[in-house]
UniProtKB/TrEMBL annotation, chains A, B:
Residues 178-290 form the Alcohol dehydrogenase-like C-terminal domain. Keywords: Metal-binding, Zinc. Its cofactor is Zn(2+). This is Alcohol dehydrogenase GroES domain protein. InterPro entries: ADH-like_C, ADH-like_N, GroES-like_sf, NAD(P)-bd_dom_sf. Residues 25-126 form the Alcohol dehydrogenase-like N-terminal domain. The lineage of its organism: Bacteria, Bacillati, Actinomycetota, Actinomycetes, Micrococcales. Coiled coil: none annotated. SUPFAM superfamilies: GroES-like, NAD(P)-binding Rossmann-fold domains. One of its GO terms (molecular function) is metal ion binding. It comes from Beutenbergia cavernae (strain ATCC BAA-8 / DSM 12333 / CCUG 43141 / JCM 11478 / NBRC 16432 / NCIMB 13614 / HKI 0122).
Length: 345, 345
């Protein structure tokens, strides 16, 4: 089959690899119907050292079950299934606490002999725990929205949930990428009445307004902080959802959070240390939370509103490439000419 | 009157200053009956640059109201009152949210013309909001325990509360100083059944066991982390209460926290940046919280168990000095020959 590999910064290729097969009785093999390129794929796209073996790519996909191991009971051949960006047993204590990314028996795509979603098919370990069947066919117009449950929607929701967003919280979302926009949608669903979106790409922030943002702040740095404080009566926001991962976004978050408030990070941090001392987090009793979203934990909760059309998170996809053209998708997202790219094998 | 001033690292003197008087209609003047030296007083004791003016010291005291301004209604001359380590109006939105340390009209002792508690008397701004009357006389044997409500008990309680401690959480307390021991007591009161105290001063950790610690880990660094993990089935603790403020304590906290758990800091950080990236907090979805405790918020909640003898937090005081000998108290705490020193003017 064809699968996407990255061989170094900027070097994405689609190559032939062996077809995945069921190896364990708990495995399933899923033929990929829709995949996509993630903002976090751009981090290695910028910085990965050249490697002759390459790494398989993609951690967001949905598709049709083609084969299952003898122990698999919750999905069957022919089901259309959504795969979250981590695989997990959904039964251990961490999973029961909703922290599937720390599953005792789980793992991530593209590691330890498991492939990636930007491919024609994927072997899915612990299929019963990992996959969620969706009651639609592979020609459903809902597929792009359902695909967001793989990662970006669940990740935005995780940011909002961990920040304790509710009717009484003011919210600032930092970043107008797909995760930032899904954080806006999630904050709105959790009842927030003021949602300030910090971003400077009008096409994206316009979509953010349609998804629930009440204010847009295009300024950055001290000017951006001053603007958010002005919009929040001088105090800053109770909940700051940081959906970027770079240090300036962290600093922005510290600058706009209200005393006693929460900074909830879901952008993968591209730094290892950051200000947390008296002058940043400690003095004003600010809480720092977040991490890789247990997307699996949220699929059943978020899917009904997708199925009945209440929300349309698939609007974050603004272009589509064939699998063999996936490198064009990376280029478009890197150049910000595309917000998020669908990949159709 | 006599009052304690620090003139630089290691240089503590008791000097004559003008008697405090009511300046605002919302002020009270309190004659100090009991004060104490705080672990956080040792930070400037180690590092304060020499200054000819000196700084007044002390932020924990209780005493008898000697005079009140015309607007004061909740305390009266003759009342025995507890002063939390920050003064506040107790009516603004931050105070109503329980964040008195961010009060819109409040402040801290030893700043902006307000003196400190290691003195014969103190002018208390916003007396109605700041002071809490205790139904005891100035000869009550409960005074040391009531004095802990000024800071260390409320601070330990804040650590436990912010960490979400309850019956289902395993707890690790880092630091066997007075705040660490109060964090142990608080975690026990909030229902925790396993409380691991990290500390290496047997007299202190023995007291910690009496206050509720179920395990003591004297080891530090990698060895200490391994020991806590062993005691928690390999996973680490749900709630880590960090009551020190130095970087090794922070690193210890990161090492012993369970995925999805909380590090709650109440030791004043002596660092400005710290590890928060994928390998420390982000990857395992660890939450970092805490800050200066709104001690005022907890006085009414914690006082009944002190008054009825259910708890005896005053046991953290193991020596007493006269006000004129306060420098001896600093020396004893610095040398760790005393856990916490009472000061009797």
């Amino acid at each position: 089959m064809r699968a996407t590999y990255m061989y170094g910064a900027g070097d994405v290729r689609v190559i032939d690899v062996p077809d995945p097969i069921v190896q364990q009785p708990t495995d399933a093999v899923v033929r990929v119907v829709l995949a996509c390129v993630c903002g976090s794929d751009l981090h290695p796209y910028h910085s990965m050292p050249a490697t002759p073996e390459g790494h398989s790519m993609g951690h967001e996909f949905l598709g049709v079950v083609e084969d299952v191991g003898s122990d698999v009971t919750t999905v069957a051949v022919g089901d259309l299934v959504i795969a979250p960006f981590a695989w997990s047993d959904n039964t251990c204590d961490f999973c029961r606490e909703g922290l599937h990314t720390s599953c005792r028996h789980g793992g991530f795509w593209n590691a330890n002999g498991v492939g990636g979603g930007q491919a024609e098919a994927v072997r899915v370990p612990l299929a019963d725990g990992t996959l969620v069947a969706a009651p639609v066919g592979e020609d459903s117009p809902l597929l792009p929205s359902l695909l967001t449950l793989s990662d970006v929607y669940g990740t935005g929701f995780h940011a909002a949930l961990r920040a304790g967003v509710n009717q009484r919280t003011t919210v600032t979302v930092i970043g107008d990428g797909a995760v930032g926009l899904m954080a806006v949608l999630s904050a709105r669903q959790l009842g927030a009445e003021q949602i300030i979106l910090m971003g400077r790409h009008p096409a994206r922030t316009d979509l953010g307004v349609e998804l629930g943002a009440t204010d847009v702040v295009a300024e950055r740095g001290a000017e951006g902080i001053a603007r958010v404080r002005e919009l929040t009566g001088g105090d800053g926001a109770h909940a700051v959802l940081e959906a970027v991962g770079h240090m300036p976004a962290y600093e922005q978050a510290v600058g706009v959070v209200r005393p006693g408030g929460v900074i909830s990070r879901v952008g993968v941090p591209q730094y290892s240390s950051a200000p947390v001392g008296f002058g940043s987090l400690f003095g004003p009793n600010v809480t720092l939370t977040g991490g890789p979203a247990p997307a699996r934990a949220y699929i059943e909760r978020l899917m009904p509103a997708v199925l009945d059309g209440t929300v349309d998170p698939g609007r974050v996809f603004d272009s589509t490439v064939a699998l063999d053209d996936v490198a064009d998708g990376y280029r478009a997202m890197d150049a910000r000419t595309s917000l998020k790219v669908l990949v159709r094998p």
